Amino acid sequence: MKSKSVSIKLKTFFFLFCFLSFSFCKKTGSDTGPESNLPDTTKRPNVLWIVIDSLRGDIIGQYGVTPNLDLFAENAVTFKYHLVNAAWTRPSTLVFFTGKYASANPVNFWDYPTTKSEVESFYRTEKHPLPKLLKENAFGTYMVGNNPFLTDKFGLGVDVGFDSLYDFSNYNEDTKKITKKTFEVLEEISNDKKPFFLFLNYNDPHKPYTPPQGFTNRIQTKEVLDEKKMNYLGEVAFVDEELGKVFLELKNKNLWDNTMILITADHGEVMHVAHAISPFTGTNTYYGHGQDLFLENIHVPLLVKLPNETKKQSIETMTRSIDLYPTVLDYTGLVVPKSVQGKSLRSLIEIQETTKRTYYGETRFTQGYGEGHEFLLQRSYRFHELGKFWQGSVGSEFYLYLDSKKDPNQENPLRITNIAAIKGMKLQPDLEKKILRFWKQIRAMEPKLPLYHLSIQPESKDTEVQIRIPSGTIRMASYPDDVVLEEKGKLVQIQTKRTDPFEISFEVYPDVSFPEFTVWFSKKQIPKSEIFTGYFGVSLASCKSNCDLLYETGPKRPIITPKAKVYFWKEGGQKKSYSSKQELGTDALEILKKQGYVQ
């Protein structure tokens, strides 16, 4: 009996040991971070992300020039109402690779040069650009295409972390070269056991439109086409043929099934005469882009073939380009960083979406917000940069309300001179309420401007304050009711007879210059040595140049000592650093000329 009891105890111990070992292994496996969903990297799906530059959302399947894309759509999810959150290549590409709005990145979307400070700031603050994140999680990462904004080589962009980058922006006839290099990369990939991420970026049909001979003959339509649109469609036909070759090569190398394939565009192209001259920039944008957020500029295709699936599906609801980054991570089993502002499309694909997505976009001179088919677009100086395009003046900022169900081509928007004027427009109450709500959404979604504060302890009944900036305008945020305020854009003058301490708060709009101020008590100017600043209360006289950091307090309010007649501090970070003196090099200018960006 004793030996039997020992045997039972041993068996019990053995099973207990196995259970604890399994539990421990499972627990430690769950803590491996981004690889938790798909722990075996060799089973992860590959990702092929294809961008067809300037491809509008109404082209595929409509003109007989996309037979390969039409066939692809038979085994893919088609998103019918997909909108990009920026309207030209560099900001749109950074939206792709960060999952955040363009203004959440330090790289400007106003001018072509990327300054040294912007590039350094991007590398310092953007920890998870998609190619870098995938590379860190055992993916081989490749870029093949024409996109000069994905390298910091020419002063036009930033390096987002590809293992191998083959950029053809220096070539006049790049499309076939891109296809050939893609074949070489696929050969390399097929001999590697690692999952891959390949970003394939065709520049056609970006202007200038120069399709090879014969491709315009493939157009099938009753629409009367002008020469430019015919050539545009000819280039679409050309790229479609090249993509057919890439698809066949993927299948021949047995890479097709286990690859997630996304096909989209970085922006559309303006082709409606009503938008020939942008109301926001005054620029001729006919057969161009980047000067507004009308639908023909932001509505682009999105086709997604899921790994190891052949389902055909069509989704009508709005999706955004900020959603693509988290979608890729979702289907590759990686954790989405908390900083990402987009939302994976998986819940839509699996018919589990419970809330409708809303739109927020930014481009030169323009911000916009939309729900469904209704949009409010604003002429905006919010993200301007000093330089040859802007010398620092801020003009009127009007709004356009559009309903593309009632006005499909967005030809007849409701114009609002400023938000304060909406009360006098005698609109339907529901419409007025909606426009005000959209306006508040634009304000809520844009990054906040730094807020400057002046705390003043008067010595007399005669206090004067003067605030000046070299460019932009001063926007008062808060001040006492009993002060006399005179606002003149770059200059604000304040007078008061109060003897109690008071505060003044203001913004510099846009945030490209630093304010100077002067305070007088009974006509006697307060010297810098008696003005204290920043979190630690350092004398203003202690800093002669580059004093931004000295003024900052972060989110905390400084402790203002009784000895401080005037205390100045800044809440919300440093002003944007941008050099208007930077000139593009010869290589960069040649690239931009070849791509039709500059004349």
From TrEMBL:
Residues 45-333 form the Sulfatase N-terminal domain. Residues 1-26 form the signal peptide. Keywords: Signal. It comes from the Bacteria. Pfam families: Sulfatase. The keyword Transport does not apply. The keyword Transcription regulation does not apply. This is Sulfatase.
